[in-house]
Amino acid sequence: MSLPEVDVCIIGSGAGGAPMALELGRAGFKVVVLEKGRHYQPKDFVHDEILNSRRNFFMPLPWEEPHLVRHGAQSRYERSNVAWTANCVGGGTVHMSGFFYRLKPVDFRLRSTLGAVSGSTLADWPISYEELAPFYDKAEAELGVSGEAVPHPFAEPRSGPYPLPPLDVHPVASEIDKACKAMGWHSLPTARGIISRPYRGRAQCSYCSLCGSYGCETGAKSGTNASLIPAALATGNVDLRPGCMARTVEVDKQGRAKSVIYLDENGEVQEQPAKVVVVSCTAVESARLLLNSTSGRFPRGLANGSGLVGKNLLFSSFGESFATFRVSKQGEARPWLKDPAPFVNRSVQDFYLLPDSRFGFRKGGTLGFMWAHPNPIHAAVELAGDGKSALFGKALKDKMREYRDSRILQFEVYAEWLPTSGTYVSVSDDTKDKYGIPVAAITVERHPMDFAATRFLVERGEEVLLRLDPDDVQRKGVMGETTILQHGTCRFGNDAAASVLDKNCRAHEVPNLYVVDGSFMPTGGSVPSTLTIAANSFRVAHHLVRAMKG
Questions:
Q1: 290 and 427 Cβ atoms separated by less than 8 Å
Q2: H or E stretch including 365?
Q3: How many Å separate Cα 371 from the centre of its chain?
Q4: What is the rounded CA–CA span in Å between residue 479 and residue 487?
Q5: Which residues, other chains included, contact 100 with Cβ-Cβ below 8 Å and sequence gap of 6+?
Q6: What is the pLDDT of residues 147-185, one digit of tens each?
Q7: What are the angstrom distances between the C-alpha of 270 and each of 13, 261, 452?
């Protein structure tokens, strides 16, 4: 059924879609937001690991809505739920940990800084840090970010302090500060998308320790479900429709986007006409939607005359190590081990960009320190292991008793993922989801420089851990990838032959189509990108409001 036309139809309600809905609604435009998932309420967010992490509360089941994943074009695809983020109002911002970093000026000109990198399709951004900075300020204020900006040699420019003071931290943060200072490094407070004080009608953090992988029952975590979406709905101009799966974006005879075909919450086919269509489904799912939106005008997918939709997919390079402190052994000498405070909130960025490539790379990344996640089932599975080295019986029980007597401090590495022609999203006509729509097929071919940088950063992080004199330090990995941080499949740029979008994230080939999730990013930076996606969406919304008002 074809519905009445609206000014703007937005697909997705996460870090990219929600700022657009808020700003367009405030400007008086009639907006429809189509969200694939449910609209959870605070009462739905419970501390249940099985529900949140092992069922389909957030992520779809791979036998119902798979992503196909392979490493290398010659490998076979495997069904997976890799590269899904939360399917609900607020998207991935609902189950995020809320580490809110800004990119640095070098991230916007990485190709110019590094020069040509063999085997990489590296490109500069068509905008500068200075152009995005005011919208970082706006995103931090609208979402609610707690932090402390301290001077250090690697700080990105800021116009002022964070909107809220930093969250309270565990005493181990001071131990990390001392260890870094002794090595001549800089330990920095990590800004969080979690409010430390009551803010705009939301309650402050209750310090429950279950942020990542969980929704926030108090509304203190600054997911768009708790911050931007309520404000957008309050304008009276935004119609949020949960449970609606977009199938295609349709075009008219002139090649302009005219409507979105979707399945509503009852499985009925609907058509929502709009003057402007904004896509924000994640880099993987937005590419899938555009590639499935074929027509006589766009036989290879909407806005894909260049063949670049789905190309240059980026995730985030990942590594981690753990330091174990036995409380029964060290508790008296280190009483802070018994402190239950959940947040460490310390980062190291001394190795974000190296002066030369003596270690096999120049662009490094960020170390983020935190206590290990307290999920008990996950911990038990990790302790048990698998294969020939798997534990069971008394050996496993002893290991679990040791775990209960331990505090485990870890760091995560967020490192550059260099774009390559071998990492991309396509669609599979042979595999369809429960809606009958061809699924995303992801091919990954990593650049070897990624691994060199991640290994180097892991080694530096372990130096910090060892300074704290733990009972044990274990390296988890140096070749990982964080697929919930995704970018690049609809690059923006000034050259229509080398990018899908222009500098304002409007499709070169479709003048009323915008893409505002991480798809636009030519590089992912060496930090979690959620804040950057939101900031850019506010920037694009500012442009679009002015354009629509003439």
A1: no
A2: strand 365-371
A3: 20
A4: 19
A5: 140, 143, 145, 147, 191, 192, 193, 222, 528, 530, 531
A6: 999 988 889 999 999 999 999 999 999 999 999 999 999
A7: 19, 6, 49
Given the structure tokens 């152009």, which residue do they identify? 131
Q: What is the pTM of this model?
A: 0.98
Burial of residue 406 (CB within 10 Å: 0-12, 13-18, 19+) is buried
Taking alpha carbons only, the member of 483, 465, 549, 368 closest to residue 69 is 483
Cα–Cα distance between 284 and 289 in angstroms, integer? Answer: 9
Give φ, ψ of 228 to 5 degrees.
Answer: -80, -40
Dist. CA 148–CA 163, nearest whole Å: 9
CB-based contacts of 270, cutoff 8 Å, min separation 6 = 1, 3, 244, 261, 262, 263, 264
What is 206-249 written as a DSSP string? ---S--TTS--SSS-B--TTTTHHHHHHHTT-EEEETT-EEEEE
- Confidence at 423, pLDDT banded by 50, 70, 90: very high
The 10s digit of each residue's pLDDT in 96-132 is: 999 999 999 999 999 999 999 999 999 999 999 999 9
Tell me the pLDDT tens digit for each residue of 192-209. Answer: 999 999 999 999 999 999
Could you give the CA distance from residue 496 to residue 508 in angstroms, rounded to a whole number?
6
Q: Tokens for 276?
A: 């402007």
Only one residue has tokens 């000034």, namely 494
Rounded Cα distance, 538 and 540, in Å: 6
Tokens encoding 422: 């071998």
Beta bridge mates, 164: 146
In the chain, what are the helix, strand and coil shares in percent, each to the nearest 5?
25, 25, 50
Question: Torsion angle of alpha carbons 66, 70, 76, 82, nearest 10°?
Answer: -20
How many beta carbons lie within 10 A of that of residue 2, not counting itself? 10
Given the structure tokens 């200075």, which residue do they identify? 130
Question: Dihedral sign, CA of 129, 313, 66, 287?
Answer: positive
